[in-house]
Amino acid sequence: MHVCEHHSTPFDFLADLYYERVENAIGFGSRGSGKTNIMAVLHAMNSGTKPGCETAQVGAVEAQAKKCYRYFKPLVKMAFPGQVLTMRLGDTEFNNGSRLEILAGTMNAVNSPHPHKASLDEFELTTWDIFQEFLNMAQSTTHIKAQNILTSTRKRAYGTMQQVLDMVAEDSSFKVYTWCVFEAAAPCPHTTCSQCKTIRKGGRSFFEVCRMRMKRSQGFIPWQDIVYKRFKTLDVSTWDAQQECKRPERTGLVFPWVSENPELGFVYERGETVWEAIDFGGTNPSVCLWIVERGKDIYIVDEIYQRSLAPSTFAEMIIAKRKNKGYNVPYSAYCDPAGKSTRLELAKWGIFTQAKASEVESRLQVINSYGEDGLLHLTAGAPNCHREFKFYHYPDPKQNKNLSEAPEKLDDHCPDAFGYYFIHRHMLGDAARAYMEYMEQEVERFGRIDPMTAMLEELTR
Fold first, then answer.
1. How much is the average pLDDT of 405-430?
2. Containing H/E element for 78?
3. H or E stretch covering 379
4. Does residue 198 share a domain with residue 168?
5. Whether 154 contacts 17, CB under 8 Å
6. What's the structural domain count of the chain?
7. In whole angstroms, what is the distance from residue 21 CA to residue 177 CA?
8. What mean pLDDT, rounded, does the chain reach?
C-alpha cells in the first residue's frame, strides 16, 4: 500500500501496464525499490499470456538490461513451464509467438526494433537523443496495445528524468507512478519509536524522517537495511533525491540558487530602459534576452528563443518584439564577439551590437554572487531562459576525461547571452565605463547610438 501522500504502489504500476490501462507510464521509484524486478514480472506475464506479444527491454547501461533478464529467466520457468522455444540473452522466443529482446541503450540498438512493449530501465542515465529514438520503437497491432515504459530513480536536477518529468507536467504524455523507500519498506519490527529517535544523520532523527510510515508499509526492505545502510550512510541530499524521491540533487549545477519555477508578477513600465543580450544560433537556437535593471536588481523579462533563423528573420523578430511590447532600447545590444557577419547583418536593420570577450568561469562567479544575493530574477516572461539556467551544469566528473572546469556546452544559449550583457554592465573597469558614458552621450545627441559611430566601430574592431 502507499504510505505517502500522492504516491502510488509498485503494484499499481504493474497492474495498469499489464491490463493496458495506460499507453505511456513512468515508474519513478527510489533506488533499490524493485523497479527492474517489476519489469521482469511484467515481461514474463505479457509474454506468457498474450500470444504474439513482442517486448524490448532496454537498459541505459548494458548491465542493467542483463540484470532484468536474470530476474526474468526463473520467473518464466516457474510460471510458464514448457512454453519457451529458445532462451538466450539477446532474444527469447515463446511457442505462442511472443518474444523478448534485451538491448543496450545505444542509438544503434534502439533504432530498428518495433515491439509492442518498449521498456527503458534507469533512463536517468541515458542521453536525450537516445531517449527520443527510443520513443519511436513501440507499435500497436490489432490485438496488442503499444506501450512506452520508463523506470528510473531521479539523481540529478539536470538529468533526463527531470527533463521528462518537466515535459509530462506540461502535456501529460506519460502517467507517472511514484513510490519511495517507505512504499518498498517491510513493516517496522518495533513496538515503539524510541530507538528511531536516537538514530540521527544530517541534523535529523530517523523518527523525524519516517513519521511512522513504516508502521503502515507492507514492502520487502528490512528496517535495518533502510536505517543503517541508507539513512546513516547517505548525505541528506542523496537520501531526499534517491530514497524519498523528493527534490533532485543539485550537485554539479552552475546556478544552484535558481528556483524551481520562474518568478511571476513582473510588469514592465513603458519608457523604462531595457537592455538586450544576443546569442547567435543556426541549428542551435538564436536567443535575444530583454533585461531591466531596477536599482541593484536585474530582471530577465522577455526572450526570443528559436532554432534555424536567418539573421534577417531574427532581426525582424527583435524589431517586432520591441514595437509590440513598447521596449525602450536606447543602447547597443550585447553579443558574442565571434558572430561578426551576423552583427553586420543586424546592423543593416538598425540593431547595433557591442561585443567583448571574457573567461566563462570568471563571469559565472560574479553572476552567481548576484543570484545568491537575490539580485538576479528569472521571470515567467523568459521560460526558456529559466529552464536553461536551472539545468546548466558542469560535466560529470566520471565522464569528464579532460578535467575541464567549464560547464557542459549543452543548452547554454541563454546563459551565454546573459553573460555578454553582464560583462559590459557589471564587470568592466574604469576605461570601459568611460566608454559607456560616451555611448550615453551619443544617445542624448541622436536619440540612440549614432549608426555611423557604431558601424565604424564594428568595421575597425
1. 84
2. helix 62-79
3. none
4. no
5. no
6. 3
7. 13
8. 87
